[in-house]
Design goal:
five-stranded mixed sheet; 31 strands; alpha+beta; 42% helix; 28 helices; twelve-stranded mixed sheet; 21% strand; 882 residues
């Protein structure tokens, strides 16, 4: 609790108790924000003018306002200027002598900083046409980098944005433009209508010569009124030829219709813009009225059905946020799951039911839940309802637990209480808490009223504990092989409390028989598992099925430990399992067995080579080919890798001819081959892709494949002077951001010490010969650095450990994370025992010697060390199993 307002520096890391103190004392009435972005195209301009007027009531005569700035010129409190030097301390402006009997008006004029990290107001110069593009990204606490505000989710207000920019620019914010003036200096100023009450982190600004596609969604509401929503889809002008804006408009309209029906609450934010922006740190952000997306969803290369499905899923995820997160917002970041878990679950539901992407849940099982399983087995795992003491902790909680585990648990919740009860609870929740802030108890109250069930035990078991439950079928047989008893067993331990995991599950258990190479489902029985085990009477009196699959319908969140018969069946006949959802569940559990060192990686690689070609779901096929390359690089014993890479390269080269030319499977196979070729295999494939076209494999060499091939050529040590000249010529001929960053990766990937030294220093300083790196340029360079042998990279380990603490203390969170993760000396080859591994021992020693290091930094390192240890354990199991 904050009893008195204390001034200290640095003060960017707002604590939960400080936020609670301010929320008790402040009622924020409105904010007016004026941003002058007219100088953005001037490369020498580091900042822009930001003027904010805040009107609020205060129960105390003192408070503080958040503003990360280059400078503050003036602070007016109720019309009177106060001393800036005494009021402004780092990221805060401290105010004294506020009125407590009437509202206060505070006007703050300053210079805010253009960003290169993707935080705040990001500035990007298009390498193709030299145009400048701006967009904002504020979650969880970066609005204060652009304008002065109360930067916490439970202090909502109405914002009115006024923007000045070049006259030919597209200027936009959360609400429609209601006034526009062309100024004498060739700029224009637009005023937007006030927003409804929202949190600062979901305000947004867009500025630049964006290409715009427009549309409208019209829908009859339940009361008979007609709702018309203006829509826009935008991208950089140089990407317009690749932009399927009409498809974005169509998907948006489909989603709005679906959510209006599901939630029975009209879309409350007026317009709906979807802006695809460069160098974006996230997949997307749910700013009401102006949703921002990574422009990786503007496909300049062949996009598979899986990529389109993923884009659709992201679009629906953000749309779900218009209600879960924007209309009703968590009070503090402890309950981040109240928006992200819901959006991940309901977004996938909408993608499945409102669009043509009929395999959305299959991809969720293969990709999203795999992310959750990884995060939940880390030493940094946490309950879905997390303990978030400050903003640094909040920034790191956008993880697989908050998103994908939470979504999986909500899918189980819908099975537990029924889909209708879940829907009715959401509707009541929105009606009661619209434009307000909530916590876990508020949603449980709505759920209990809709379902008639006491949700306290369910919430304690699922939302307040950690770890992954494991399910397996245990059975006994007589001498003839007939099952005499069978049970579904739940096991696992909460890694935080060490208590056994005993969560309630409603799920189905499937039995399959092998017939003419096909795995045919003979039974799928729904059971309710309330504790450690439940009897499976339907199996008694029959022969042991070829496959027993708990969670047959992927209803719950759990890993499957297969009985020996089922595992043998799967490894030999996975291509015979034709139902996509259980097939994805089986692949996911086998993959976790590899990562958990209970299945040798070479057997999993062989299963992929034997069976993945039969997978027709583009999203799952992409996951499997990625796991193929990762298994060989990280989990197979080092001495087995060369042979497996050659085998994989030969098999995938055969697939190139087997799959239809230009198909998703052929495209994905070619991209995976190029990734494998970084180690020197399949040189003839690289030569074909980089040679005269069309090539012998009838593969279309698009932008992604072209640059992947150059990166592989360099990593394999084959980028000679002539090839490097051709690479630079290709980048000059089509100077896209993809090309520029790929050149960075390729140059850093060269297997020589000088190239690695240059790349290492470039990443550490976040600068190259051209100046400050952007977020994407930094990561591209770091990627190239890591494409090298353990022996080549070993000399940099000591320098890494000496640098990481200064990096974390001097860089912003986004850059620091990219540097520390990007250069981490992990995934080294196992030599001798795991305990003797130098990279693992050094990480352990550093953490022991730096107990007082920032918690956010230690979390990054703990997770990197855990992944390294898991890799080494899998390598040891692989070696022992050969």
């Amino acid at each position: 609790m904050v009893d008195t307002l204390q001034r200290y520096a640095p003060n960017e890391n707002l604590r939960r108790d400080e936020a609670a103190w301010r929320a008790r004392n402040i009622e924020w009435h409105f904010a007016e924000v004026q941003l002058d972005l007219a100088n953005a195209a001037d490369r020498n301009a580091t900042s822009f003018t930001s003027i904010t007027t805040l009107n609020f009531s205060s129960r105390e005569p003192v408070t503080f306002i958040d503003f990360i700035h280059e400078s503050v010129a003036e602070v007016l409190v109720n019309g009177t200027a106060i001393d800036v030097d005494s009021a402004v301390l780092d990221a805060r402006i401290y105010l004294d002598n506020l009125r407590t009997d009437a509202p206060n008006t505070v006007k703050i004029t300053g210079q805010a900083i253009y960003s290169r990290s993707g935080e705040g107001l990001h500035r990007f110069v298009d390498p193709q046409d030299g145009e400048t593009y701006l967009y904002t990204q504020f979650e969880p606490s970066e609005a204060r980098r652009v304008f002065a505000c109360f930067e916490q989710p439970d202090l909502k207000t109405s914002y009115r944005f006024t923007l000045t920019g070049r006259a030919d620019w597209h200027l936009a914010s959360n609400q429609p433009i209601v006034d526009e003036v062309v100024n004498e200096d060739g700029t224009k100023t637009v005023a937007c209508s006030p927003t409804p009450k929202i949190s600062s982190y979901i305000t947004a600004v867009l500025a630049g010569p964006y290409h715009v596609v427009r549309g409208e969604h019209v829908q009859k509401l339940a009361d008979g009124e007609e709702l018309a929503i203006e829509m826009a889809a935008t991208c950089r002008a140089s990407l317009a030829e690749h932009f399927d804006g009409e498809e974005i408009i169509k998907l948006t309209s489909q989603g709005l219709g679906y959510f209006h029906e599901l939630f029975d609450y009209p879309y409350p934010w007026g317009k709906y813009d979807s802006a695809f922006v460069p160098e974006y740190n996230l997949g997307a952000m749910e700013n009401p009225g102006l949703v921002t997306f990574t422009e990786r969803y503007v496909f300049t290369s062949h996009a598979t059905e899986g990529q389109y499905e993923q884009r659709g899923n992201t679009l629906m995820h953000e749309m779900a946020h218009m209600w879960f997160g924007d209309l009703v917002t968590m009070k503090w970041w402890d309950d981040l799951w109240l928006k992200e878990s819901f959006a991940d679950y309901i977004g996938t539901l909408a993608n499945d039911e409102a669009t043509d992407f009929t395999t959305a849940w299959t991809t969720f099982a293969a990709r999203r839940k795999a992310w959750a399983y990884v995060a939940d087995q880390m030493p940094t795992t946490h309950p879905i309802v997390a303990d978030i003491p400050d903003l640094l902790a909040a920034d790191q909680n956008f993880d697989g637990i908050t998103y994908a585990k939470g979504a999986s648990v909500l899918k189980q919740l819908a099975a537990f209480v029924g889909a209708d009860a879940f829907r009715d609870a959401a509707r009541a929740y929105f009606r009661k808490h619209a434009y307000g802030n909530t916590s876990l108890d508020d949603f449980l109250e709505a759920l209990e009223a809709a379902s008639g069930r006491d949700m306290g035990q369910w919430a304690d078991a699922w939302l307040k504990t950690s770890g992954v439950p494991k399910l397996h079928v245990q059975y006994d047989t007589d001498e003839s092989g007939t099952i005499t008893s069978a049970s579904l067993i739940q096991s696992g331990t909460d890694p935080v409390t060490a208590a056994p995991i005993a969560r309630p599950h409603v799920l189905s258990v499937g039995a399959y028989e092998l017939d003419s190479g096909k795995l045919q489902r003979t039974d799928s029985v729904q059971v309710e598992l309330a504790g450690e085990q439940v009897a499976l009477d339907f199996l008694i009196g029959r022969k042991v099925p070829d496959l027993l699959l708990p969670n047959d319908g992927d209803e719950t969140y759990a890993l499957i430990e297969f009985d020996p018969v089922s595992r043998t069946t799967l490894l030999g006949h996975l291509s015979g399992l034709t139902d996509s959802l259980p097939r994805a569940t089986c692949w996911a559990s086998l993959w976790d067995a590899v990562r958990s060192a209970t299945l040798d990686a070479q057997s999993y690689v062989q299963a992929i080579l034997d069976h993945a070609h039969a997978v027709t779901d583009a999203g799952v096929f992409g996951v499997l080919t990625d796991q193929l390359a990762t298994s060989i690089a990280k989990y197979v014993a080092p001495e087995l890798r060369a042979g497996l890479r050659q085998q994989a390269a030969a098999t995938l080269t055969g697939w190139l001819n087997e799959f239809e030319a230009g198909s998703d499977q052929q495209t994905t196979t070619a991209r995976t081959l190029v990734r494998l070729a970084r180690s020197g295999v399949a040189p003839e494939v690289l030569d074909a892709f980089l040679g005269e076209q069309p090539n012998a494999y009838q593969v279309t060499v698009d932008e992604q494949l072209l640059w992947g091939s150059y990166i592989a050529l360099s990593a394999a040590g084959r980028l000679d002077d002539a090839a490097e000249a051709r690479m630079h010529e290709a980048a000059k001929a089509n100077p896209t951001s993809v090309a520029q960053n790929s050149v960075r990766t390729a140059l850093a990937a060269r297997p020589d010490l000088q190239a690695k030294d240059t790349a290492f220093d470039t990443v550490l300083m976040a600068r190259d010969e051209q100046g400050e790196l952007s977020n994407d340029a930094l990561s591209a360079t770091a990627l190239g650095f890591t494409l090298g042998s353990a022996a080549l990279l070993a000399p940099f380990e000591e320098r890494y450990w000496a640098a990481i603490l200064p990096v974390f203390e001097t860089m912003g969170m986004e850059f620091a994370t990219r540097v520390i993760e990007g250069l981490y000396p992990g995934h080294q080859d196992l030599q001798g025992s795991i305990e003797q591994n130098k990279a693992l021992a050094t990480a352990t020693t550093w953490l022991e010697r730096h107990e007082g290091a920032p918690a956010a930094l230690k979390r990054i390192l703990l997770e990197e060390r855990a992944e390294l240890q898991r890799s080494l354990q899998a390598q040891a199991y692989s070696r022992a199993s050969r």
